Inverse folding.
């Protein structure tokens, strides 16, 4: 293997050269960038930058080629049938907004949209708005106290009235990996359009859109070691052809008169205006980097790290972990509360010892309410983290306890 | 800078003014739904004079220590003294300069205090 996971991999990420002792555990919010990504973006700006799809001059064609190579790379990465199914957006949130907005245009008043109680605000709020506009009914697959979906009554929840299933592949709070293999076939059998929020999953799990059998899938570039400012919406080509565009303007049209316009074929139909050119090219480099490591190798490494994290965190007195206890049902994302210590204090004390974690509701307020807690501290691990980082976290947590638990 | 200085921890561990009074003339509650912090401030006054200032609530070290320092300072002060209390006063009294995200915590009690006057 070209790359070794864990501590050695930090050598590929310049931020860890700049901050030698940084223990970065906020990867569920955004990941650090390997130098191959920075170099690809830098090279574009230095050698071939121009707007894409416009110029007939050579550097514009070079930039366009690099931009379109990223699209091919993303298509292969998620096993899309064709790169025409890959739309570049600003981030996963925009991709999920496009999906909700455009799919809702196909629905009728009274149609049901099924979500889960795990959903992040980006997968929930666009549907709340669409429901208001189109008089749709929102239903939720409940979550149990362990943060797992309750599927006992699923055949009563998914019915022919269910026109959309919008579901996260992995929770950004509990780390729960959802049962897509069970839910997607049921939703498809009921005739629903299935939208996957893969914002968290893309960093941790292999994604094969054809094997999953979903209709639309969204993720961000910055959570898979690419730059911020670019996301992906994948959709089945025949569905994308049917959907209304979300934004109008240059690049997405076929013919325009002063009175009317016709639209280009996907993906251009959904990429109005100048896209995030360097960011798309950076994302292409990030995906190549991840492919060189291999999704299976990532899964195996992170499974061990998740098991170790669970085992070590369980030993911290007064700590209550949110999410499944079995490492096979979750990713290396650990949200927790500590008796007698406020999440903000934990995050500040950890920051003092060089450990970066997140405190708050992680854009999932209803889920926190479900667990009866206003906020949690979240430590989220990825491929450059190691057991040593788990150790630094646990030492920091013990320090917080000593300082603040009376 | 380490936020968890001895004086801050001392106010957090041993609050001087953490109670509720029933005969308050001024009171207000503010909360931060993002982290679940909640501070209530109660003032008992006689004319312009604050006879007693107390607080109740839940939150992080910074918000609770700031609430207690604020209430302690207010004892026997005039109501007009509240006008002179601002962000800089809180930072100076805490003796630490929190990052912008944590400063919000430290300013929550002051927000409650100002709201209590507006409520009246």
């Amino acid at each position: 293997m070209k790359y070794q996971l864990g501590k050695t991999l930090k050598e590929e990420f310049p931020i860890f050269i700049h901050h030698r002792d940084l223990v970065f555990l906020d990867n569920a919010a955004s990941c650090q960038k390997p130098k191959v990504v920075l170099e690809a973006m830098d090279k574009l700006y230095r050698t071939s930058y121009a707007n894409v799809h416009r110029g007939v001059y050579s550097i514009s064609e070079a930039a366009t080629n690099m931009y379109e190579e990223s699209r091919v790379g993303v298509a292969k990465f998620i096993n899309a049938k064709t790169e025409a199914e890959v739309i570049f957006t600003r981030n996963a949130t925009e991709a999920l907004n496009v999906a909700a907005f455009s799919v809702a245009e196909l629905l009728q008043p009274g149609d049901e949209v099924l979500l889960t109680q795990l959903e992040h605000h980006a997968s929930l709020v666009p549907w709340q708005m669409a429901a208001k506009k189109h008089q749709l009914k929102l239903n939720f697959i409940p979550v149990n106290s362990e943060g797992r979906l309750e599927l006992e009554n699923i055949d009563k929840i998914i019915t022919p009235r269910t026109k959309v299933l919008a579901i996260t592949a992995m929770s950004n709070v509990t780390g729960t990996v959802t049962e897509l293999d069970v839910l997607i076939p049921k939703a498809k059998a009921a005739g629903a359009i299935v939208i996957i929020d893969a914002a968290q999953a893309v960093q941790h799990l292999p994604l094969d859109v054809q094997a999953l059998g979903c209709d639309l899938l969204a993720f961000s570039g910055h959570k898979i070691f690419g730059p911020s400012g670019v996301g992906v919406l994948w959709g089945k080509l025949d569905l994308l052809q049917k959907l209304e565009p979300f934004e109008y303007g240059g690049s997405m049209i076929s013919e325009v008169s002063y009175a009317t316009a016709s639209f280009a074929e996907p993906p251009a139909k959904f990429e109005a205006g100048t896209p995030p050119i360097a960011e798309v090219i950076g994302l292409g480099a990030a995906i190549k980097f991840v492919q060189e490591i291999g999704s299976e190798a990532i899964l195996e490494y992170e499974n061990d790290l998740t098991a170790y994290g669970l085992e070590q965190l369980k030993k911290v007195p007064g700590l209550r972990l949110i999410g499944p206890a079995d490492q096979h049902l979750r990713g290396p994302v650990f949200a927790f509360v500590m008796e007698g210590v406020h999440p903000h204090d934990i995050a500040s004390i950890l920051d003092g010892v060089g450990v970066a974690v997140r405190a708050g509701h992680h854009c999932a307020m209803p889920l926190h309410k479900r667990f009866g807690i206003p906020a949690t501290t979240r430590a989220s691990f990825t491929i450059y983290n190691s057991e040593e980082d788990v150790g630094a976290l646990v030492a920091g947590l013990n320090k917080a306890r000593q300082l603040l638990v009376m | 800078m380490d936020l968890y200085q001895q004086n801050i921890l001392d106010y957090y561990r041993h609050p001087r003014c953490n109670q509720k009074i029933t005969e308050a003339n001024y009171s207000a509650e503010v909360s931060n739904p993002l982290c679940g912090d909640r501070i209530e401030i109660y003032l008992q006054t006689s004319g312009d004079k604050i006879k007693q200032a107390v607080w109740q609530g839940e939150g992080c070290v910074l918000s609770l220590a700031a609430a207690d320092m604020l209430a302690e300072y207010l004892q026997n002060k005039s109501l007009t003294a509240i006008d002179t209390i601002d962000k800089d006063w809180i930072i100076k009294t805490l003796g630490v300069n929190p990052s912008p995200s944590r400063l919000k915590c430290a300013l929550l009690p002051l927000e409650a205090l100002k709201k209590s006057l507006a409520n009246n």
